[in-house]
């Protein structure tokens, strides 16, 4: 399977990753919405992790909260722009194709939520409780959010690495 991956064309690699991420995201959100009422929580590891069924009408960390329609439109434009500008994002490398696939799958997963539920479904919540009893934690997130974050980190990593073509041409002549 992995050896055939390298024989695929870049668009097929990118959209296969996007589809897998989208499917995993929507499946996991479907399970959450079917089994956990809205605004409910289930403790998995007390003081560390719980499943929640929360909605976010904003972007990361609820930035632009209550701007769901605007964010849905922005997401659609972002996917189109990223696809048109894909050559600027290490698309010639399999890692760049993977990153863009993660990004597209995550964007589409959250976009479908915005259109279907008028908010993004978040369900993973990590936290801890201080000695004072105060709970502090990371904002709830989902599979799409993980894919988008991973894509950004991977793209940053790839831009700091020399391109295989440029490293050979940068070698000193003898």
Helix content: 40-55%
- Strand segment count: 4
Averaged pLDDT: 88
Radius of gyration based on Cα positions = 19 Å
Low-pLDDT parts are: 167-174
Instruction: Tell me the count of domains.
Output: 1
User: Number of DSSP helices?
Assistant: 6
User: What is the multimeric organization of the chains shown?
Assistant: single chain
Structural class: alpha+beta
Morphology: globular
Strand content: 5-15%
Distance between the termini: 41 Å
Main sheet record = 4 strands, antiparallel
Read across the widest sheet, the strand sequence of neighbours is 1-2-3-4
Topology as a string of helices (H) and strands (E): HHEEHHEEHH
Short description:
The protein contains six helices and four strands, in the order ααββααββαα. The chain has helices at 2-5, 10-35, 68-84, 94-117, 143-160, 164-169; strands at residues 41-45, 49-56, 120-129, 135-137.
